[in-house]
Amino acid sequence: MGVEEAAVRRAALVTGASRGIGFEVCRQLGRRGLRVVVTGRDGTAVTEAAAGLRLEGLEVIEALLDVRREGAAASLATELRAAGVRVDVLVNNAGIYPPGTLLETPAETFREVMETNFMGAVWTCRAFMPAMLEAGYGRVVNVSSGYGSFGEGLEGPAAYSLSKAALNALTVKLASEARGDVKVNAVCPGWVRTRMGGSGARRSAQKGAETIVWLATLPAGGRNGGFFRDRRCIPW
């Protein structure tokens, strides 16, 4: 790869990327020629994930990022810009899935879920979307769930369901603020065999990542402000 080609190569940052769907999204985007920024809050897991992707010949940057911490994403954005890396694609994948009903889930659990699944995406979008808007290009993909869909009944554990409904609302709001060739969409990857989804899930991580990668690489005429499963719109 020449210097000129490397200079214009797009970069994708994925949160919660050390395993499962996030790791597979990094792999698929890397195979499409993007540099991938692998992030997570467990330094050892992030390093191991990045090493595995490099063994496949992919260009990888590894970074610690605890999306719950206000200011962490902004600090990382500053570090990446200083290194000459502009994030063109942001995949908000980090999430947790604790059980519990609305009336019984402990307050601390609710806070942690909202800080991870919802506020984490708020902080990363605020950190990385302004540069996308300035450049006139960007793709933001919020990894949501059918459990966050009013149209599908807001099923599932209470804190998780509410956090994903909030993430969907964030998607709509951000899409309305996008301009140029910047697109913001949400995705339900389905029930995937990961540590979160369990061994009984019907889908592989590869299948779960497909629509995320599709949205992350939409052409100029692609959709903005939608909620998708298997590349088809589903109800908010």
What topology does this entry show?
Elements: H1 3-8, E1 11-14, H2 20-31, E2 35-40, H3 43-55, E3 60-64, H4 72-82, E4 87-92, H5 107-135, E5 137-143, H6 158-177, E6 181-187, H7 205-216, E7 227-229, E8 232-233
Parallel strand pairs: 1-2, 1-4, 2-3, 4-5, 5-6, 6-7
Antiparallel strand pairs: 7-8
Helix pairs in contact: 2-7, 4-5, 5-6
Kindly report the spatial arrangement of strands forming the biggest sheet.
3-2-1-4-5-6-7-8
The dominant shape is globular
Could you estimate the helical fraction of the residues in percent?
A: 40-55%
Name the CATH architecture: 3-Layer(aba) Sandwich
**Strand portion, in percent?**
15-25%
Structural category is alpha/beta
Please, what is the average pLDDT?
93
Low-confidence stretches: 1-7
What's the N-to-C terminus distance? Answer: 43 Å
Encode the helix/strand succession as letters.
HEHEHEHEHEHEHEE
